[in-house]
Amino acid sequence: DGGITQSPKYLFRKEGQNVTLSCEQNLNHDAMYWYRQDPGQGLRLIYYSQIVNDFQKGDIAEGYSVSREKKESFPLTVTSAQKNPTAFYLCASSGQGPGSQAFFGQGTRLTVV
Amino acid sequence: SQQGEEDPQALSIQEGENATMNCSYKTSINNLQWYRQNSGRGLVHLILIRSNEREKHSGRLRVTLDTSKKSSSLLITASRAADTASYFCATDDSGTYKYIFGTGTRLKVLA
């Protein structure tokens, strides 16, 4: 089945911990994205990557880090520097140039305990 | 913020009625897209309209685009309870790979 997979679905983090959210796609897409969604809100871009070994900050990159070592994978690390990490995180990919259709994973809900 | 806005923020209608939601954006675009999100799930692509198109149809969906007003509308005809979801518009940021999402319209269709 082709698609984009996020894991885990639910994640709990203690204060001061770093956690990593996984995002894998087998769509052969060049571009991948991470968004944050707060309750009742729209999506805000954290980081995006247009090609392997390259990524750019989005609008709310502080407290987050990413890597793009493989075309299929774009993991997001939520660091202890992110003061309010509780949110729903969505990963997406697109492959046909700027402004083409994006495919989304099912999301990871992160809660700080 | 570059974020666009959908209007209304929330909409409640009876099954069988039409639902119209609007989107305004700020930058010049190549395409505008509409997505649907069921509660607690990822987004699903509905329709894409290019900047040189004015109207597009897909099943019960009709999308219009007015680039002079930087606005778009999504019409869902003969709504069903299963259409209950949040709907977002997304624009490309001046031909880059960045998508800019609106704040969403929460649609509730009552059976």
Give a written overview of the molecule.
The complex is a heterodimer of chains A (113) and B (111). Chain A has 113 residues and is mainly β. Chain A is 0% helix and 50% strand. Chain A has strands at residues 4-7, 10-13, 19-25, 31-37, 43-51, 54-57, 64-66, 76-78, 87-94, 103-104, 108-112. In chain A, strand 9 (87-94) and strand 10 form a beta hairpin. Chain A starts with a strand and ends with a strand. In chain B, strand 9 (85-92) and strand 10 (99-101) form a beta hairpin. In chain B, the strands form two sheets. In chain B, strands 2, 4, 5, 9, 10 and 11 form a six-stranded mixed beta sheet that branches. In chain B, strands 1-3-8-7-6 form a five-stranded antiparallel beta sheet, with no helix packed on it. Chain B is built from no helices and eleven strands. With 111 residues, chain B is mostly beta strands. Chain A binds chain B through residues 6, 31, 33, 35, 40-45, 48, 50, 58-59, 88, 90, 92, 94, 98-107, 109, and chain B through 1-3, 29-31, 33, 35, 40-45, 48, 88, 90-92, 95-104, 106.
